[in-house]
C-alpha cells in the first residue's frame, strides 16, 4: 500500500514539474500544460510584407512546437500595449512584438520585466534607453536600406547635371523603418546638391494612402524625376496615380522602393519600378530559435541583423518565379 501511494505522489510531482517547466522563473504552471507559450503582438495587416511576416511567424511557431497567442493591432500602439498587458496577465512564457512606432514602450515593458516575462523585439525597434527591457532585437538595418537606395540613385544619376527632383513616400510616422530609411537615403544623397527632395509625406505603408499622396504630389509638384517609396505597397499605389496622370512609371518617373514582395518584384520585372532594396519578412525561424535560447537562459546577441540584398529590373526577371513571398 505504502509503495502504491509513494508511486502516485512521485507521478504527481513529476507531472507538476513537467507542467511548470513551461514557465520561467515564477514556476507557475504554463496554461498550455508544459508547451512554451508566446504572446505575439503584430503591427497589423497593412502591407504584403506584413502578411508574409505574419505567415512566417505562425508557421515557425508551429514547427518549433511553440503555442502562439497572436494579436493584430491594426497599426495602433494602444492595441499593442493592451495585447502585451493581456499576455502578462495570462503569464505567457515569452512576449515578442513588432513595435508600430519607436516611442512610448518603457512603462509596459517594465511591467513585463517585473512579471519575469522576457521580451523579444522583432522587425522594428523601440527607442527605450533601458536595454534590459528586452532580450534582443531581430530585424533589418533600415538605415542601411535607405543608404542602398541612395547609392543606387547616385550611380544612376551620375551623368546628370540636375536638378534631380525627388518625392518621398514615408512609412508610418514615428516608426523605425520610416525614420531610418529616410535618414539613410538623405545621408547618401545629401552630399550632392543636384538631388532635391521637393516633397516628403507619409503614405503609412499602405497602397491606398500611397496612391492618394502621390496624386497630391503630381498635382502640386511639377517635374518629378524620382519617387523614393519606403515600401512596395506605397510604390504600387503611386504607380496607379502616375499612370492616372498619363505618365509612364519607371520612365517619366524613376521609382525606388523597399521590401521586394511579389507584387513589387513583378512591377520591377515589368519596368514600372526601377530598383528595390530587399527587406526580408521571413523572421519566424530566427525568432523561434532566439526564443528557445532565451528561455534556456543562454546568451543571445543584443542585436540580430537580417541578411538581405537588392534587385535591379534584370535581376527581378530572373528570380521572380522562385520568390517565397
Ligand atoms: C520593415 C517593416 C515595414 C515594411 C512595410 O521591417 O516594418 O512595415 O517595409 C511594413 O511593408 O508595412
TrEMBL record:
Recall the GO molecular function terms of this protein's record.
carbohydrate binding
Task: Give the UniProt subcellular location, in the record's own words.
Answer: Cell envelope
- PROSITE patterns for the chain: PROKAR_LIPOPROTEIN
Q: According to its UniProt record, where is this protein mainly located?
A: other
Q: Which UniProt keywords apply?
A: Signal
Q: What InterPro entries does its record include?
A: Peripla_BP_I, SBP_2_dom
Pfam families associated with the record: Peripla_BP_4
- The source's superkingdom equals Bacteria
Q: Does the keyword Signal apply?
A: yes
> What protein name applies here?
ABC transporter substrate-binding protein
The beginning of the lineage is:
Bacteria, Bacillati, Actinomycetota, Actinomycetes, Propionibacteriales
Amino acid at each position: 500500500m505504502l509503495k502504491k501511494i509513494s508511486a502516485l505522489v512521485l507521478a504527481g510531482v513529476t507531472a507538476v514539474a513537467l507542467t511548470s517547466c513551461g514557465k520561467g522563473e515564477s514556476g507557475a504552471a504554463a496554461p498550455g500544460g508544459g508547451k512554451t507559450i508566446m504572446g505575439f503582438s503584430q503591427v497589423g495587416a497593412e502591407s504584403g510584407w506584413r502578411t508574409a511576416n505574419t505567415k512566417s511567424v505562425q508557421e515557425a511557431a508551429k514547427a518549433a512546437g511553440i503555442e502562439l497567442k497572436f494579436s493584430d493591432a491594426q497599426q495602433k500602439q494602444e492595441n499593442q500595449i493592451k495585447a502585451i498587458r493581456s499576455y502578462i496577465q495570462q503569464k505567457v512564457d515569452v512576449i515578442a512584438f513588432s513595435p508600430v512606432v519607436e516611442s512610448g514602450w518603457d512603462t509596459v515593458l517594465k511591467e513585463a520585466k517585473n512579471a519575469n516575462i522576457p521580451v523579444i523585439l522583432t522587425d522594428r525597434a523601440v527607442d527605450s534607453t533601458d536595454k534590459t527591457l528586452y532580450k534582443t532585437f531581430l530585424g533589418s538595418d533600415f538605415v542601411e536600406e535607405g543608404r542602398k537606395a541612395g547609392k543606387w540613385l547616385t550611380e544612376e544619376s551620375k551623368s546628370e547635371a540636375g536638378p534631380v527632383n525627388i518625392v518621398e513616400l514615408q512609412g508610418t510616422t514615428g516608426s523605425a523603418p520610416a525614420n531610418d530609411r529616410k535618414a539613410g537615403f538623405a545621408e547618401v544623397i545629401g552630399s550632392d546638391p543636384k538631388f532635391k527632395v521637393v516633397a516628403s509625406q507619409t503614405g503609412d505603408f499602405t497602397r491606398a494612402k500611397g496612391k492618394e499622396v502621390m496624386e497630391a504630389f503630381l498635382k502640386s509638384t511639377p517635374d518629378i524625376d524620382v519617387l523614393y517609396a519606403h515600401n512596395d505597397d506605397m510604390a504600387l499605389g503611386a504607380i496607379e496615380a502616375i499612370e492616372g496622370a498619363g505618365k509612364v512609371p519607371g520612365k517619366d518617373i524613376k521609382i525606388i522602393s523597399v521590401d521586394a514582395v511579389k507584387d513589387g518584384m513583378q512591377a520591377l520585372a515589368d519596368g514600372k519600378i526601377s530598383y528595390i532594396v530587399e527587406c526580408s519578412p521571413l523572421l519566424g525561424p530566427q525568432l523561434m530559435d532566439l526564443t528557445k535560447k532565451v528561455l534556456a537562459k543562454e546568451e543571445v546577441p543584443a542585436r540580430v541583423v537580417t541578411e538581405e540584398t537588392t534587385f535591379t529590373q534584370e535581376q527581378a526577371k530572373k528570380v521572380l518565379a522562385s520568390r517565397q513571398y
